[in-house]
């Protein structure tokens, strides 16, 4: 099955070792699962709340699956047929040289379609299984908080690590399996794998984001602001929907998001690596990124297992313990990469490219932490501005969000510049490979990053369960401390996710130029006119127009997603208000109907995500057909730049507002119920859809647009936009985008049906 005739014995062993390591990562996830499930679930009252969260999350995931499956089926067929429009690559013909052209088409078409399904299924597994384990973990964290800080920290972090190791194991398994089967023909198939994971991440990230923030905003407006009751007060009808939302948004959505970044970086690295193999005849360019990923899995296992508090510690430093695990994994990885570069690559440039990626992840961690952690000046400044009201607090948070975008993009620009300098003087494909390896390095510690992210909603849910069941103050304080740290870890992983999205998109940008150049060579285009030689010329007016439109798309996407949250949140507000008018509810004599709020959020999220997904999939096709492929390159550049700046601004501002509120709730400036607290709740409510819906949704959107462009460009370049078929396709795409915008902006009919059901 494995076919690389020039591979050395070491390289063959290395590939199979990486394949085996992917199962080690999955086995570690199962081991942690068995450890978590052995812990008790607390009192019957705690289990009652937990069961409501679990039921709501399951209902959402089942409905989401029904929404997604028809589109998956359609796109599987499209990807299979795409190989009959553009012929298989010369590498695919060489790999299957014993077969006729028709049979090669059949094999590659089936491989691409099945890889798409595999990427989608793996993304679904990471999101759904990881989220279900988070639900299993939250009640156990709450129960453990009654005994010790150390035990509750360990359960929360290791539950999140399960999702991280699923991301590592399945991402590595998919890419390695495709490489083992298809060898040098892997690029023909890998795009399907990346697209499957990316598309599912878009659905899960957008749908989960709308769900979680509709519930959160609605619950806060009525509960905290209007009624003056605590965040997770059991009398609030939306409180269970809010806790469910933490799981479907921050666990399932973020896990799928980072998983597709993990996929996309390995896809682009292997595509560019195979381009270098054809130039140099050395297989090391494609073996090296796979080995890097394998080392990352092992280092993440070691680092994540070290995260635990000291025994008998009443209020430990959870963030310090989590950082210890992260830096341990980073240190192990760097040392291992150094040996690999010296003894296998026999050069240092590849090592420096990967090391720069790890440094990028660490620096983004620190920059994000600076702007969002409760102990740092930005959050303290926002909290202080609450003394003069909500308006000044909002203005201060906006300024912090804008500034954080500047520094993060400077860090990313410096990283890409370093990758360029490392391969200075080499052909462009080497530089693009260096950028791709930076992405590989950045996501080396994916297991740690996803564990840090899932730690946030798990701790948040545990804190909510504690408040709803009136647990003792000591346990509540432990959970509140973990929750505050979880807010920062969530913000950090959002920063890493956004940064990795940009690096992955730049890597795909390189693959985009390489693939088009290859098709141009097959078409007989002179070398000096091919895209890799000419580059994307901003001086060309059509390219500039493409870049302008690309820069606008993230703003449209964000506008529609925030509008969706506002629309759904208004329904939650009305529902919670209605239930508060039920006699005896405020006195605690009558229980609220949590299911109605859960149903409203579930239906709203599924209805809203369809239009947004259509915009991401269809817009690059329309630009490519109307303005042609070079302008499509400009469109991609605009999407990447604008999307990164906007995503970081929203994530950082929202995270800072949230933690400013938490510092006030801990007793600063009058504590809960004070005028400062009310101002901070307004800031948190505004920031919620920014940091948990619109901002994170831009990550998969950027990569969906890039992958659709990469899949479509080799086809579009062969047809004139004046042909009847292209004109028809242009009209259909324009109608789809216009319809998606109108559907997303209007949405009234769907919400009438929701109100009737509720």
From TrEMBL:
Enzyme's top EC category: translocase
Membrane topology recorded in Swiss-Prot or TrEMBL: Multi-pass membrane protein
Domain of life: Bacteria
Cofactor(s), by name: Mg(2+)
Keywords, sorted A to Z: Cell membrane, Hydrogen ion transport, Ion transport, Magnesium, Membrane, Translocase, Transmembrane, Transmembrane helix, Transport
Site (Determinant of potassium independence) location in chain: 490
Catalytic activity as recorded in UniProt: diphosphate + H2O + H(+)(in) = 2 phosphate + 2 H(+)(out)
Enzyme Commission identifier(s): 7.1.3.1
Cellular compartments per GO CC: endomembrane system; plasma membrane
Transmembrane annotation, as ranges: 12-31, 68-86, 106-126, 155-173, 179-203, 262-279, 285-306, 326-345, 393-424, 430-451, 495-513, 609-629, 635-657, 701-719, 725-743
Pfam families assigned: H_PPase (PF03030)
GO molecular function terms noted in the UniProt entry: diphosphate hydrolysis-driven proton transmembrane transporter activity; inorganic diphosphate phosphatase activity; magnesium ion binding
Subcellular location: Cell membrane; Endomembrane system
Predominant location: membrane
Record text on subunit structure and interactions: Homodimer.
Function: Proton pump that utilizes the energy of pyrophosphate hydrolysis as the driving force for proton movement across the membrane. Generates a proton motive force.
Family listed: Belongs to the H(+)-translocating pyrophosphatase (TC 3.A.10) family. K(+)-insensitive subfamily.
Name of protein: K(+)-insensitive pyrophosphate-energized proton pump
Organism name: Candidatus Aquitaenariimonas noxiae
